[in-house]
């Protein structure tokens, strides 16, 4: 398993449009992916789970993956989240 923390810097957090973009990126990977927000575990391949988690600006989350492309998946998703500034 590979995991990394990232802070959400987008002023509006992971709302509908960035959440949709995140899902499209996550779906590229074969690994089992998770986003951990406190006690909550979110599937980043599900737009509904991302939106329901209410991840706003300034929140630090952990992106985890387990599988053949785990490191690449985590690094890509973390880069996307940390550079998202709509």
TrEMBL record:
Location of the HPr domain: 1-86
Entry annotated with the keyword Transport: yes
SUPFAM superfamilies to which the protein is assigned, alphabetical: HPr-like
Keyword Transport: yes
Keywords of this entry: Sugar transport, Transport
CDD domains, alphabetized: PTS-HPr_like
Its biological purpose: General (non sugar-specific) component of the phosphoenolpyruvate-dependent sugar phosphotransferase system (sugar PTS). This major carbohydrate active-transport system catalyzes the phosphorylation of incoming sugar substrates concomitantly with their translocation across the cell membrane. The phosphoryl group from phosphoenolpyruvate (PEP) is transferred to the phosphoryl carrier protein HPr by enzyme I. Phospho-HPr then transfers it to the PTS EIIA domain.
Name by which UniProt lists this protein: Phosphocarrier protein HPr
């Amino acid at each position: 398993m590979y995991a990394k923390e990232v802070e959400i810097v987008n002023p509006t957090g992971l709302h509908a449009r960035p959440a949709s973009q995140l899902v499209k990126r996550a779906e590229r990977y074969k690994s089992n992916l998770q986003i951990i927000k406190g006690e909550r575990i979110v599937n980043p391949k599900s737009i509904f789970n991302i939106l329901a988690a209410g991840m706003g600006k300034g929140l630090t989350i952990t992106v985890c993956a387990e599988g053949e492309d785990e490191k690449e998946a985590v690094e890509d998703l973390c880069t996307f989240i940390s550079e998202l500034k709509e």
